[in-house]
Amino acid sequence: MSSIRVVLIEDHDLTRMGMKIALQQQGELVFVGEAATGAEGVSLVNSQQPDVAIVDLGLPDMDGVEVTRQIKAAATEGKSTKVLILTLTDNQETVLAAFAAGADSYCIKDISSENLVQALKLTADGNSWIDPAIASIVLQQVRRKEATVEIDAAEADYKQVLEATPLTERELEVLSEIVNGNSNAEIAERLYITVGTVKTHVRNILNKLCADDRTQAAVRALRAGLVK
């Protein structure tokens, strides 16, 4: 795997320093710059053309939504920096505004270093990493089928995969429970099966939908009309 070039735009000095140190310790990542304001961040992204920009929403001169919008507007053909939003809030309006501006992923600031690295890898690969804390907001948006927010900019052709390997009736039932936000234990209780059986069905569902996690599977299921 090639290195992922990352820029960090964060106004809080201690947070920025801590994240910088954490990222620099990861062999797969190359930390290419940092900025404490939105204007500096946009300029840095334009000059460095990183793979991913981590953007704090609460910047002093302009919010992260506007920073995201400017980064995406400046994208050149064949080269577009992915944006991973980092924030303290799970406010619905803010979340949807960030995605509408072109954000690719969304993390809450208490994310672990391990999950942040995973989020950066997925984002760089063209997938979306959606923090579980705001997953329900995203799913509600997809359910309403409002075209203002694009959540997955580069999805695989999973519909063709499903034609070759369709979901079973039981897998569709489990998938419906996943979309409703139920845990494995809750699904097992509702469908009168063991937790181990649920885990097997979830694994099969993720494979058939070419999804990395339950949230991505739920979003794809809703878009493909597999559940409502």
| Poorly predicted ranges | 145-156
Biggest sheet: strand arrangement: 2-1-3-4-5
Mean pLDDT: 82
What general outline do the C-alpha atoms trace?
elongated
- Reading the helices and strands in chain order gives EHEHEHEHEHHHHHHH
Number of helices: 11
Strand content is 5-15%
Gyration radius (Cα, Å) is 18 Å
Structure summary, number of beta strands: 5
What level of helicity do the residues show? 40-55%
For the largest beta-sheet, the strand count, sense and barrel status come to: 5 strands, parallel
Distance between the termini: 37 Å
Could you walk me through the main structural features you see in this protein, from its secondary elements to its overall organization?
With 228 residues, this protein is of the alpha/beta class. Helices cover 50% and strands 12% of the residues. It has helices spanning 13-24, 38-48, 64-73, 92-100, 113-124, 135-144, 158-164, 169-179, 184-191, 195-208, 214-223, and strands at residues 4-9, 29-35, 52-56, 82-87, 105-108. The chain has a 5-stranded parallel beta sheet with strand order 2-1-3-4-5, sandwiched between helices. Strand 4, helix 4 and strand 5 (105-108) form a beta-alpha-beta unit. Helix 8 crosses helix 11 (214-223) and helix 9 (184-191) packs across helix 10. It is elongated and about 55 Å long. The termini are far apart. Mean pLDDT is 82; it is low at 145-156.
Could you list some keywords that capture this structure?
228 residues; alpha/beta; 5-stranded parallel sheet; elongated
